[in-house]
Design goal:
Layout lengths: L9 H6 L1 H13 L12 H26 L21 H12 L4 H7 L9 H6 L17 H34 L3 H15 L3 H11 L1 H17 L1 H7 L1 H16 L1 H12 L5 H30 L2 H21 L12 H8 L8 E3 L21 E3 L8 H6 L1 H30 L5 H31 L4 H24 L4 H15 L6 H8 L4 H29 L4 H22 L8
Helix pairs in contact: 2-3, 3-4, 4-5, 7-13, 7-14, 7-15, 7-18, 8-12, 8-23, 9-10, 9-13, 9-23, 10-12, 10-13, 10-15, 11-12, 13-23, 14-19, 18-19, 18-22, 18-23, 18-24, 19-20, 19-21, 20-21, 20-22, 20-24, 22-23
Length: about 575
């Protein structure tokens, strides 16, 4: 029989103090507030103890009540979140009684928590290194998977800095070389000539050799092309077009290689937020680029933009080469607990192969090579990639077509937004860049908010398909609505505001179509993204060049440009909601 806490005598409460302290120490290890001095007011001690019970002990003990002798299984980390467990008034009363009657058999049966077996997933999760307020500013203390996410995030910042710099520098460059708007459109679209070529090869190479090597090579290639852009422009227009196309070839492997790295390194419970953060690096890169470019141009001339941004890529590459592991299995600095946590995750369904010089046996889906290190890495054989099934699957086509529709508006605005602010709104170079920052900053914020919302909806039990469709619908209809308003804006500030909401809501796509590849085939995530990004690169070639032609032929009528983007957003909404899926399609 359980007694109500209010009927416990003072002596019973004092006698139970050691057990209560024991249980409270468990709560402290799970993130409860640290214990304060004993001379704090008694009411404060009681209040704090009740908070600890409700906030951290209750989930553990409720699970103990619900599952009997089974030990508590700690939920997978979602950057500090706790598992939501059902409660009832009677269970809460039982727990409170047990805390103050731990010397009774009933109390001991509730409070005794079996220690998980050594090497179990519960033990791994309990010892899992995580970011805290004490170590967040000390990167050396970060879990290895967070370092991977952070460095990939930085690479995407540099990626868009090197992509957007020509959007600002093209204004003084056009004056220097006498280029028309049509020529400017061709120059800006030449990036995508190379970009489209390395999407599928980039995904294949990342699956075969690992995302670290492929992403690192891509950053080196595009940084070199950025650095030599002024020399190419001074030589001839064809030389500039070739340099921009080669830059696109380097950046074309970034997304597939990143997707392969995240698929290998990040558990499924953390992927929406991780992907949203990484993709938001592109938006932040636009912000940084738009801030720095005008100042560099005014102070040192437009060539300084390309020299500065190109050098940043080589600095990043040094940190990537020596500070990041290619996979959890091949990372020397990763803890055993974190490695188990990543590899045991149900979302990381991938084949692992031992690359051992002394073992000639091959895996059904792997490719055996000699390394002498014995490290385990993820690898694929040519025959293990179901190319035909990819193109027969409706969910894959939903991603491909929707990705095309997303990037039509994105690439057109990315390359032409500063020109729009200069031509249509009458801003000068500095003001144009300053106001162009606001929409990209909105995208950075909205992308991360969308990632948090998506993961929260998933933990609430909503189906992955419903979550992806919901986020992508916002990512389509939000931009469509606000781009329509931009066309009728009666002031510059109204136009900037509408454009900010259009691009900001569009970034919800990071938790929709951009996260969908890992849902339907995590083992082929890099290849699937390479396929869809090939479709997505077409608007960069056609849409960006077509915009220049339309502006020349219509006398600068931006309503036509925005109207085409709105049409593709509506098409994407229909296709994605009709055929998309969040369920596993490929093993």
């Amino acid at each position: 029989m359980y007694l109500d806490e209010r009927r416990c005598s003072r002596s019973e409460r004092v006698a139970s103090a050691p057990a209560f302290a024991s249980v409270l120490s468990v709560s402290l290890r799970r993130g409860a507030p640290s214990q304060k001095s004993y001379d704090e007011p008694r009411c404060a001690q009681k209040s704090r103890a009740r908070s600890a019970v409700r906030g951290t002990l209750t989930p553990l003990l409720f699970e103990r009540l619900a599952d009997g002798a089974r030990g508590p299984q700690l939920g997978r980390s979602d950057f500090g979140g706790q598992r939501a467990l059902s409660s009832s008034k009677m269970k809460r009363k039982q727990i409170c009684s047990a805390l103050f009657m731990s010397d009774s058999p009933e109390g001991r049966s509730l409070l005794e928590i079996p220690k998980p077996a050594e090497g179990s997933s519960a033990d791994a999760n309990n010892d899992m290194p995580r970011l805290t307020t004490a170590n967040v500013l000390n990167p050396a203390a970060w879990p290895e998977r967070y370092k991977v996410v952070f460095m990939t995030f930085i690479s995407f910042i540099i990626c868009n800095m090197d992509r957007i710099n020509v959007s600002i520098a093209i204004l003084p460059m056009a004056k220097t070389y006498g280029w028309s708007q049509s020529t400017v459109g061709i120059i800006q679209s030449s990036f995508f000539w190379g970009y489209v070529l390395t999407q599928i090869p980039g995904g294949y190479l990342a699956s075969r050799f690992g995302g670290k090597a492929v992403l690192g090579a891509g950053v080196v290639a595009w940084s070199l092309m950025t650095f030599i852009t002024p020399m190419a422009a001074s030589h001839s227009l064809p030389a500039l077009l070739v340099a921009r196309a080669l830059l696109g070839i380097g950046e074309g492997v970034a997304m597939p290689a990143m997707n392969q790295m995240i698929s290998s390194w990040v558990p499924s419970s953390e992927r929406s937020r991780s992907l949203s953060l990484i993709y938001s690096g592109m938006y932040l890169g636009s912000v940084v680029g738009l801030l720095l470019c005008p100042q560099l141009i005014i102070s040192f001339g437009w060539p300084s933009v390309f020299y500065t941004f190109g050098a940043l890529g080589f600095v990043w590459w040094a940190g990537w080469l020596f500070g990041i592991g290619s996979s959890p299995e091949a990372c020397a600095g990763i803890s055993d607990a974190e490695k188990r946590f990543i590899l045991d995750d149900s979302g990381n369904s991938r084949k692992e192969v031992d690359f051992d010089a002394n073992d000639d046996s091959g895996d059904e889906h792997g490719n055996e090579e000699s390394s002498g290190s014995g490290n385990r890495v993820v690898a694929l054989q040519d025959g293990s990639i179901p190319w035909l099934k990819f193109f027969q699957n409706p969910a894959v086509w939903a991603i491909n077509i929707s990705h095309f529709c997303v990037t039509w508006g994105y690439f057109v605005l990315l390359t032409w937004l500063p020109t729009f602010f200069t031509m249509e709104l009458g801003f000068d170079l500095s003001s144009s860049s300053l106001f162009a920052i606001i929409p990209w900053l909105a995208m950075f914020v909205f992308a991360n908010v969308g990632g948090q919302i998506a993961d929260r909806l998933l933990t609430m039990g909503l189906s992955r398909t419903l979550v992806r469709k919901t986020m992508q619908t916002i990512g389509f209809l939000g931009p469509a609505a606000f781009l329509t308003l931009v066309a009728s804006a009666d002031s510059a500030m109204a136009a900037v505001t509408y454009m900010s909401f259009a691009l900001g809501l569009g970034s919800f796509s990071q938790s929709g179509v951009y996260s969908n590849h890992q849902d339907i085939g995590p083992r082929y995530a890099g290849i699937l993204l390479g396929i869809s990004n090939t479709f997505a690169a077409v608007p960069g070639i056609v849409g960006v060049a077509l915009t220049g032609v339309l502006l020349d032929s219509t006398g600068g009528n931006w309503n036509v440009v925005f109207g085409i983007a709105v049409g593709f957003y509506l098409l994407g909404t229909i296709v994605y909601n009709s055929f998309a899926s969040g369920e596993r399609q490929f093993e």
